[in-house]
Amino acid sequence: MKPGIILYGPPAAGKDTVTAALAKADRKYEQFTRMKVGTGKTDGYRMGAVAELESLEAAGDVVYYNERYGNVYVIDRPGLADAFAAGVPIVHLGQVAGVQELLAGYPAEWLTVLLWCPRAVTEQRSQGRGDADTATRMTVWEETQADLVAHAGFRFDLTLRTDLTQPPQAARLIRQALWRRSEGPAA
């Protein structure tokens, strides 16, 4: 099976920054571009219409979707197939249920990584990057923390505190964990 990476964490935990560090270390690492049905920011998304989402659902090609910020974000089977054909996809998620559905719904050698930082760091980062909806992102941070508590039995393969780990180091640790996983148990 081909390797893939799932980065889970609250807003401003460093998913984009760590993804950029991974891509800088090796161009085979690339963020999975989710389909977005809605309005607002279009950069970094494959914008879709409701009819496209309905067509994917009818074909059984929606692996996971969630609604946030008034939009629908979709992880779809054809998009994942394209991403795996191009290299090692990095999927960003903020719900443990999404991680579980992706693990169950799309066979791959997934490495699950929890990226975490304290609430105050998230708030500082959100304000620092000019988010107009920092208050909403803080609510999502709290929902992410509650999500982790609700799914306390779920174990990530790797946990990184992004307020204590620089992006190049995080990328190195993720690459090492992925490599160890692909090597399998020692004989």
From TrEMBL:
GO MF: kinase activity
Gene3D superfamilies: P-loop containing nucleotide triphosphate hydrolases
Keywords: Kinase, Transferase
Name under which the protein is recorded: Guanylate kinase
Organism annotation: Streptomyces vulcanius
